[in-house]
């Protein structure tokens, strides 16, 4: 019977170690997702603003005009 207890303890320790690894991986994944979101925000800013003045660039203005025209036609 003592062997069964040791085996159960080993199983419990293995499960605990696995749970800890999963928690660690989830935390690292969350940090990577947050970093990716920040990078995407920065890329969007670079793509839609003039780097010298910080105002909307031509691409962004044309996008707003097209959206506004489409909305005006619909309504």
Form type = elongated
Q: Which structural class do you get from the secondary structure elements?
A: mainly alpha
Oligomer: single chain
Helix percentage: over 70%
Largest sheet: none
Number of helices: 2
Poorly predicted ranges (pLDDT <50, ≥5 residues)? none
**DSSP E strands, number:** 0
Distance between the termini: 79 Å
Overall pLDDT metric: 90
What letter string, H or E per element, gives the SSE order? HH
Fraction of residues in β-strands? under 5%
Radius of gyration, in Å, reads: 27 Å
Characterise the protein shown here:
85% of the residues lie in helices and 0% in strands. The radius of gyration is 27 Å and the shape is elongated. The N and C termini lie far apart (79 Å). By secondary structure, the chain is mainly α.
Give a topology summary.
Layout: H1 2-48, H2 58-74
